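A quick word before the example. In earlier lectures we treated sequence and structure as two separate objects. From today on, think of them as two lines of the same record. Here is Transcription-silencing protein Clr2-domain-containing protein written that way.
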Amino acid sequence: MAPFYPLYIRRSDGRAVTGEKKKESNEPTPEQLNQKPDAKGICDYYRLIEDDEPKNVDWRRKLGGMLLRELAQSGEHQHKAAILAHLPTNYRLFEHIKSRTHDGDPQSKRASKNHAGGGHDRQDAYLYGHPLGRKKRFRSPADFFPHLYWLATDKTGDPGNCTCKICCPEEFQEEKTAVKRDATTPTPGPSQAATPAQSPANPRSGRRSPSVMIPRVNSTPAQHSSTQERPVSQPAPAQRPAPQTQPPNPPQPLQQHRPTPLPVLPFADFQLDMRWNHLLFRPGEVVWHSRGDAWGLGVVIRRYLSETPNRGVERNYIIQPLSNPIEQLRPVHHSEERLLRPWLAWSPPPLTNEVLQNRPDVSFSNVDWQAVLNGQFGQGNAEVDGSILAAKAIDVSFTLHHLLNGTTRTNPQFEERHWGGIFLGAEKIWVGEPVRVRLDAPVSHPVLVILDIVERVELGRPNPRSSIHVVGDLYTFMTTQPPPNSVMPPVDHLPTRMANDLILRNRCSVPAGRLSAWKLLKPHLALSLDSIRGRWYESSILLPMIQPEAEFNEARRRGTIDDVDPWLNGRGDSSGQPRVAGVRQPERRDALGRAVPDGTRIHDGLDPMSPAELASLTGVVPPSLAQAQPQPQGQPPAGFEGAAFGEMDVDMREFMNLDNDFTNLPPAGGANGAMGWG
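And the structure line, produced from the sequence above:
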């Protein structure tokens, strides 16, 4: 890992003691520092985080990275990894811990190891030291950064020039906003509340100016495969556009933008899906899956981890095949991710029934499937055609999920609802992760990191109408020739999966003279649903799965690992409707309709299946699972201490850890995923 360059803050306004008449320590109260459990056995206390502890180091790394990016916007230092040598004088970091005692029960302690809070019910860090006293504390590095920037750059030392939330509360910032908010611009949701400092060029500008919607034009639908072979045995590769190149004069932002702090949701599946190289496919998603001599279409209804006989970690998926409403199929079990593909990785072939194929108005819902099975429409495979039409119908549907606490009333006629995620077509998408987007501007591989999903509901009607848009930071993927002895670009502002993928790809390309980075083009950009092409996938993980092996190995040898985006379709391409929001379904199960059997359930979480349950569901028990014992969710198998993970061993508890620490980067490929990178 590249060395961290220390940054020193020469000035500080921190106070160890505050108050004029009544002096008090600028830290948690003695009662809050008391670690003794109460009568119910609950420990609720604060403790000082020393300089050498990981959380203190993490704060100083993030603050150092933000400060260096702000002070060295160009030149030799802009890509260096920086760290504050120490926090400003009299600023101290405390950790609020709340947990239940375990009365010496080791099993209880072990059960909490996978908790995101490190085994506690809550474990938050706060920075004390602001001269206004202990009640004015900073909750995150992003909160403190505007104050740190003021300390480092304002020669006058006037606190009135600081734009942090303590020195300049939001109501005061609103009065000083130079640009009035456009009434037609979507209002940022609660996930955007904690934003970094404003541009140094205008430190007192207050909140950011409203986002500008990029105009849209119709795009050309992707072409279908013309193969006449059995459709699911030979799905066509995704329609690959011409290689994208950086335009000669790419659009430049009007000011130097800063990344927005990423939202974190308190849902277990969110934590799982944000992890690097953990489980590629998600419950409720439509995927291609291997059926031996052919490929079929199905929906992931369950996933879990298990131990293999050779002490490895196996990723298990239960796939419910899609079909017509009359010929329903039993679920299928897959224990290797290489036997699955995203729906958007291949273009579906033509229908096997020529009559149905030549009718432009045909859809899954308007076909007389009994007549098709009786041969009234000629020859064809109704099972295959049913799966293709069902997948196309799902592709133009959407379902919002995980309504967040944050509904706001903009005026008596409208209210805004904020959602944690959306099933968009075949895929499940969360707030806080990147998506591939369509733009009219000539931007290379545009990616939007979603900060908020906003539904605007019109009130006062029997059937209220609503509109939905996403708000996020827009990035473009850029590759340059690195100068001698250059260091990797900072990645701590990116989602974990994007950061790790960039690190791994640069490890391969930098020796060949190519340095890649994600460049922020515009923060808080609002886009409609029809601008989203689909999930963003790691090139380092998905390319080895869908690209010919010889082609990938040759590209890796040359150090030119390209982006996986050109290999993927966009949502709606297969049905010729790439620029529609689609049909809203209240639940994901409703989007699947009659293409799956009645009673089909989509299971969240990682609850494993016993061999008996698996046999009852699929009719087949793999030998490896027949010998393994199922484990409770979040627990390592009994006596299990390590598992093969690509080219290195990891503890099962580490594999289940949800802390998303991308500093310890394993080789790509995982337990049974794509090929490993040496």
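Notice the following. The chain has 16 helices and 26 strands. We will return to this example when we discuss secondary structure assignment.
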